[in-house]
Task: structure prediction
Amino acid sequence: MTLLMLLAAAWVQDPVDSPADKPKLVEELESMAQRAADRAGKFVVSVRIDREKEPAPPTPTGQNRPSVFRTRPTAPVSGTLISGDGLILTSQFNVSGKVKKVEVDLDGKTYEAQIVGYNGTLDVALLKIEAEGLPAPAFGDLTALNVGDPVYALGRAPDGKGLTLDPGVVSAKDRYGNRCIQHDGSANFGNAGGPLVDAEGRIVGITCKISTGRGDRFGQNSGISFAARWDKIEAFLPQLKTGAKVETEQRPFLGVENDPEYRGKGAAIARAQPGGAAEKSGMKDGDVVISFDGKAIETWNDLTVAIRARKPGDKVKVKVKRGEEELEFDIELGSAADN
Result:
């Protein structure tokens, strides 16, 4: 049972008529959120970017105004202090474009920051300020984070001053090819670059992709939010520190499209893309992938994660079910830009 389901159950059993009637669970939830904010809030910084003006992008078909995420932010955005020597993470989107100057507000002081490196696939950028002896945050164990666990998206936007906190519940740990945590907190444009923390205030991710409704100029959350997993960021951090600047990465590409109507075991292919690695090998529309490189495939996500673990050009064996027949194909994975 998820945290919100427990809260709903407690509410029905013990409805709140006055502050004195609060169920113990409600008090505990409030205390948990406050504890997470107290422990992690000091690591959330405000980032201000001075950039050259860019021409307004064309309005997408069917919308009466461009999406906020098609233009670069001009108001203060959020960042996350990750080390005592002044290393800060933020969303790569926040500092993209023609940047002239970056400033960070931390503990009542303003620091000029340098963009050290970034990774567009994870949507993270590493900043550096000249400071020593700063506090360092605690980081959570992603293997111990479970679906249904409470998380909190912290930020310091849009005014760049007060701390914001949006509570949520983890709904998936492996979205976007196992790179992102998905939760139902009402994160928005201002949270991007701030930390996603667990109930103990430990950082488990950096808020990145926000799911928005069409034409929403404020970038408000449409029901789900995403944070780049800390373990994925940590693995790439050494490259960021040496100045790696990756707009998009070439990812391994099988060239198949999911059949969302399929409810059985395996990954059903609605379409093998013409000229793709799967189609070249002989795979067809309607095939159901049951094994990839020796690993059993039970869901479409299993297939996505298995592909992501390989590299473009790798040769793999893919077993599919076609009707009552099982077939195996030798495939050389292609590549595609990861946006």
DSSP finds six helices and 21 strands in the chain.
